Amino acid sequence: MKKNKFLSIAVFISLLCSAISFSVSASAQDENKVIAKVNGQSITEKDFRFAQIEIGSEISNIPEQQRRLVLLEYLIENQLLSQAAKDNKVDQDKDFSDQLKYYQKRALRNIYFDKYVRQSVTDEEAKKVYNQQIKAITPQEEVRASHILVKTEKEAKEISEQLKKGSDFAKLAAEKSIGPSKAKGGDLGFFSKDRMVRPFAEAAFKLKKGETSEPVKTEFGWHLIKLQERRTRPLPKFEAIKDRLKASLLQQKAQSAVETLRKKAEINILDKGLDSKMKEVRGSISAQPQPEKKKEEEKKKE
Q1: What are 233-252's pLDDT values in tens digits?
Q2: Interaxial angle between packed helices 238-264 and 11-19, expressed in degrees from 0 to 180 and rounded to the nearest 10
Q3: Tens digit of pLDDT for each residue in 115-165?
Q4: What b/e sequence results for 239-250 when a residue is b if at least 16 CB atoms lie within 10 Å of its CB, and e otherwise?
């Protein structure tokens, strides 16, 4: 099966998207709900949300209930250590002041991204992209077939004779086939012509419903193929791919937003080695066709 290739974008865009991909919406009342207290200091649902934004990607494979326990433990430790830091007057150190400035920028970045980029990606916009993509899809024929795979032509011919005398195809497949589909009576499900090796695909697509082929040789051995059904491949439903479409739109908008800000900004990289590498990376990214440019070129062709 062929996979779609997506536009490669700057690493920091990907990090930006993933860094806040675990943010969740909740009412102010829900967010202010107190979940625990540490030395009298409250831990709220809002704290859970912020912790999830920070470390959510690291614990995404943990079941949801266990994930909340991990987040709670993280927040308790955070409260204990931050209080210990205050007790030891760490908040008066220059290191604290410097880190505070850095995390203020991160917080502003996250909120800006969520408010002005993420929230701009709507279901309506995704549906529009879906409709455009669906129109561009060429209907593709698929067949559902079963096969019996054996090592030699002699075996294939013997089984072919049994089938011509009325033997059950699925039963013979379960008994004789060396292919993994034998457990399902040789059923391969639906497939398009490009999914199978050429000799097999050509033989399968020439058959009529219910017909069985003569022995067919491929690199895997000798096949007897029975055609079960034909159909036009069903198009994917919007709901099934909505999240992927919105994720793609989010990356495009994130890239566009950052690129717009970069063009307006004065950026001077004083480290010559990093400056050279950055220009190399930026050059390779800008050389790739951008979604907006693609649309403009398509309109001109029309």
Answers
A1: 999 999 999 999 999 999 99
A2: 120
A3: 999 999 999 999 999 999 999 998 899 999 999 999 999 999 999 999 999
A4: eeeeeebbebbb
CA neighbor of 288 nearest in space, from 64, 90, 9, 1: 9
* Type of residue numbered 293: K
Do you know the residue count of the chain? 302
Tokens of 280: 């190399």
- Report how far Cα 167 is from the mean position of its chain's Cα atoms: 45
Rounded CA-CA distance 109/261 in Å is 12
User: HEC string of the chain?
Assistant: CCCCCCCCCCHHHHHHHHHCCCCCCCCHHHHCCEEEEECCEEEEHHHHHHHHHHHHHHCCCCCHHHHHHHHHHHHHHHHHHHHHHHHCCHHHCHHHHHHHHHHHHHHHHHHHHHHHCHHHCCHHHHHHHHHHHHHHCCCCEEEEEEEEEECCHHHHHHHHHHHHCCCCHHHHHHHHCCCHHHHHCCEEEEEEHHHCCHHHHHHHHHCCCCCECCCEEECCEEEEEEEEEEEECCCCCHHHHHHHHHHHHHHHHHHHHHHHHHHHCCCCCCCHHHHHHHHHHHHHHHCCCCHHHHHHHHHHHC
